[in-house]
Amino acid sequence: FRIAVLISGRGSNLQALIDAQQAGALPVEILLVASNKATAEGLRKAEAAGIPTLALDPAVYPDRASYDHALFSRVAASGPDLIVLAGFMRIIDPAAVAGWHGRMINIHPSLLPKYPGLKTHQRAIAAGDTVHGASVHFVTAELDGGPVIAQVELPILPGDTPDALAERLLRHEHRLLCHCVAQIAAGRITLGDSGVLVEGQPL
Ligand code: GRF
Fold this sequence. Notes:
Elements: E1 2-7, H1 12-22, E2 29-35, H2 41-48, E3 53-55, H3 64-78, E4 82-85, H4 94-98, E5 104-108, H5 120-126, E6 131-138, E7 148-155, H6 162-185, E8 189-192, E9 195-198, E10 201-202
Parallel strand pairs: 1-2, 1-4, 2-3, 4-5
Antiparallel strand pairs: 5-6, 6-7, 8-9, 9-10
Helix pairs in contact: 1-6, 5-6
Bound molecules: 5-O-phosphono-beta-D-ribofuranosylamine (GRF).
């Protein structure tokens, strides 16, 4: 089972996938790591693991549609079964998303459908929530709005700051993402017409 990973920054979720794969716990081949930022730390992590990388700068394309067309053409050419968005901080053109229906997932640091978009930790704390978490979902044209595959929850502690909460959540994100990729690679999780299927049954 072959995956491509799209990132924009640090790449700790990417590193978790690499570590799981190298430990023999995730039977996938990571074909390519692509980023919209050439300086993304995650690209260095990919290089260190011997994974081919691609940095494509949106600034040299006239608009989102042409950038996404170029990016997803290059990603598709590498031949992945699944695209994993792991901290890829861009909205994707619906035309590019459409070609990957049921074959592209994203990890998002909130309990979707709560808090799509940015600053999720800050928003959860400001709302007085006592529980926060992360979600992995299939990607659709709606930002952070596709069918949820699995979530992890953790308590918000008194006095929590967005940074402290984000850091605590990150370890859980890593496990959640590896778990979901493994389940999809094993063919246990798919996207049907009416939503996520686990071994052919609605979630
Ligand atoms: C994670 O919190 C992920 O959920 C969000 O962006 C962050 C990426 O972190 N979409 P990293 O680059 O994987 O370290």
